[in-house]
Amino acid sequence: MFFLAAEGGETSHNPIVPVWQELVVGGVAFAVLCFVLMKFVFPRMEQTFQARVDAIEGGIKRAEAAQAEANQLLEQYRAQLAEARTDAAKIRDDARADAEGIRQDVLAKAREESDRIIAAGKEQLAAERATIVRELRTEVGTIAVDLASKIVGESLADEARRKGTVDRFLSNLESTGAR
Amino acid sequence: MFGQANVLAQGEAAFPPSVEDFYLPSIVPWGAENSYWFTKITAMVWLAVGLLIIFFLVTYRKPQLVPTKKQWLAESIYGFVRNNIAVDMIGHRGVAFAPYFTTLFCFILLTNFFAIVPGLQISPNSHIAFPAFLAVISYVMFIWVGIRHHGAGKFFKNSLIPPAPWYILPLLIPIELFSTFIVRPFSLAVRLFANMFAGHMLLLVFTLGGFAMLNANVWLAPVSLLSWLMTVALTFLEFLVICLQAYVFTVLTASYVQGALADEH
């Protein structure tokens, strides 16, 4: 303004008409700016953005994979645990059943044994009793004959009837005893 | 702002400010009139280009997956334009345009921002040459993208013939031609230029007006003070306009590209 004032300002400008020198300067300057920024800066920013997206998405993908694996493992463990529980219950039941069976067996055997012992005792008793009876019968016969010989005064021992007499006597005795 | 500095130095204000206040003398050669190769304006354009290149190259020299603060800042700018403008407007195909849109957005934002940086205090975009150049790029880009995507015939058919009854077409086709292929570059360029021009003019009016009143009558000093306070307030408004216009320019470019890529009218 100083200069314009000093020189009278006789040159008049129309603000709507571009100055061609400024067009050239502006064009060159802006072209330089575009060249540098669009070639060296913004494509690298795009790359960085892409790398960042990849990093984040890769992280998410890895996390998802880990999550899936963890879930799968959990399922597996749960299944195994359930299986183990079933097994344990089955083993317990089996053991209980076995124990019951063994108890029954032992009881049966014991009962059988006791029956056997009792039976054997009875048998032995019967045998002994038979022996005793037989011996007694012989002895009683002998004694009776002896006594009768002494009373009668004659030996009946040799007599053929002797056996019959004693037997008849004993039979009578038994029958009266039984009655 | 040379003019203002000189005004301050001289204690004299040429009021009201004129269009000539936007055309600063040349730096090389020093003080020459009508020499535009190296003025404050072109210097600021180069400054903006240099700052942006340095900022992005430094912050993105060694990009890391987990960004540093600076890297995060650079990525946020790109991510904002990429996701909120390119992808929002165009869809997934917009990613391919995001680098250009970001460059465009940063360039306009920074050159606009010079309008309120102390010492610079004028935006190169208040000279129509720069918005015009950017608008021409957008214009050529959306037409080229459309022709490459659809083929020339289908693109112009899509753009010019709206789905309307045949008897209304003679009216609609000229309107479509006018609005799509003639008005668009001008509206883009003029919108940005006029906003920055008007913003600078407003700041000039209130700043210089304060001096003018002070010089006219010392008793007007309180009013001068009010005028300068208005300058401060308008600077905040200007900041809003700066961001908004950078955004609008980029969004409109994206919208034109989207329209060119759209399958139906």
Briefly summarize what is shown:
The complex is a heterodimer of chains A (179) and B (265). With 179 residues, chain A is an all-alpha fold.
Characterise this structure.
The complex is a heterodimer of chains A (179) and B (265). Chain A is built from 3 helices and no strands. Chain A has one domain. In chain A, 7% of the residues are buried. Chain A is mostly helical and 179 residues long. Chain A is rod-shaped, with a radius of gyration of 67 Å. Chain B has 265 residues and is mostly helical. Chain B has one domain. In chain B, 71% of the residues lie in helices and 0% in strands. Chain B has 8 helices and no strands. In chain B, helix 2 crosses helix 4, helix 3 packs across helix 8 and helix 7 packs antiparallel against helix 8. Classes of the chains: A mainly alpha (179), B mainly alpha (265). At the A-B interface, helix 1 and helix 2 of A face helix 1, helix 2, helix 3, helix 4 and helix 5 of B.
Percent range of helical residues of chain B: over 70%
Shape of chain A: rod-shaped
What separation lies between the terminal Cα atoms of chain B? 47 Å
Name the poorly predicted regions of chain B.
1-12
Helix coverage percent of residues of chain A? over 70%
Oligomer category: heterodimer
Largest sheet of chain B: none
Provide mean pLDDT of chain B, rounded. Answer: 87
Structural class of chain B: mainly alpha
Instruction: Tell me the overall shape of chain B.
Output: globular
Total strand segments of chain A: 0
The span between the termini of chain A is 174 Å
β-strand percent of chain A reads under 5%
Number of strands of chain B: 0
Largest interface: A-B, 44 and 58 residues
Number of helices of chain B: 8
Tell me the β content of chain B. under 5%
In angstroms, what is the radius of gyration of chain A?
A: 67 Å
Instruction: Please indicate the count of domains of chain B.
Output: 1
Main location (chain A): membrane
Transmembrane segments (chain A): 23-42
Protein name (chain A): ATP synthase subunit b
Family (chain A): Belongs to the ATPase B chain family.
